[in-house]
Fold this protein.
Amino acid sequence: MTDRAFRNLDNLRASASTARVLNLLRVSHEHGRTDGWRAAPLFENSTLNRCLVIKHRLRRNEIDAFRVRRYVATKIILPIDGSDLRVGGRYIFVDQVGFDAMLEQALGIGPSHPDRKILALIDELPSLDPFLLREQLRRNGHAPDPCYFNVSEADLMRMSDFVASEITPLVDLSIGPDADLAAENPVARLTAKIMSNSAGEDMSALGQTLMLRPEEYEEGVFCWKGFLYYKWALQTITGDIGWVVDSVRRVKPRGRVDTEQHVAIDRAKEQVRRRILITCEATADMLRVYDDAFRGLTREGRPTAFRDFLRDAPILFARLGERLGAIQHIVSFWKYRMTGDRSAPGAEELLDLLADFETSLSGRERPDVLALAA
């Protein structure tokens, strides 16, 4: 299929969200000459390794393209001209009817090709945030270069102040709260190190304090950045979550609604509201595991608590990312559909939306992984 007007792909590149878009074309432009990008690509196929991967909420006319009913799909866009995205691109959905034939015809990728497995792993995820994606691939034996898991520049800029405030207690512990911060700005330096892909020598003292081997230390810093990212992400959408919960309660379908639809809508609205709140609570509880460990390091003189947390963090990553991904999907699409001059959805569309949201949250509200912190 060809999509020449996908809301202007050039605009998509400029405003990409790490939770919704994986812009491999940009990764290739920024890192294509590095040894890591060439030696450990995300996809073996060079064209696929320069595509755009998008978590796409299916329109009504797209749902029938799948054998199994679903509401969100993984959209692969192959730009027609990588130097000018305004030209548009060809696109296919992962696992749509005839997907394997389309993939083999367009890219020469057969059902047994390694890239086919990677696409399936990506399709399983509720979002494309870099930490969740990396963990999904890692636990399935695939380790692309770190350049594929960068947080977007826009998110980095918004996140930096938050991270600086979070790590100030660690800086105070290291140099004392009364040090002249303006002279060397150690908070800014440590923030930059945490947000980069490599811990660097400036943080080697922390690794020694935590008694971590070099490989554990590098992995630990990545996990630390991941939890800071998730904590920031939840904080940035907290107000929107309250609005969505209230809006779901108040929404009324447009047009004629029969008694059976009324009952189904009321049940679905209550289920979605309940699951959003429980999922948010479970997510906050998981983040408190990190807060307790960091407080043990910076306030209570227990560095082993933070070390143990960093070692266990990958186990928590997948569930935490899935929960936040589901919440972010609900918030972003509900805002898109219910704001501006758009008319209220009809009964059938509203039931579809609520079913999508309920499915996204299903099984993700249980705080089962919190037992790891016990």
About this structure: The beta strands are 2-3, 21-23, 52-57, 72-79, 89-93. Residues 154-373 form one domain.
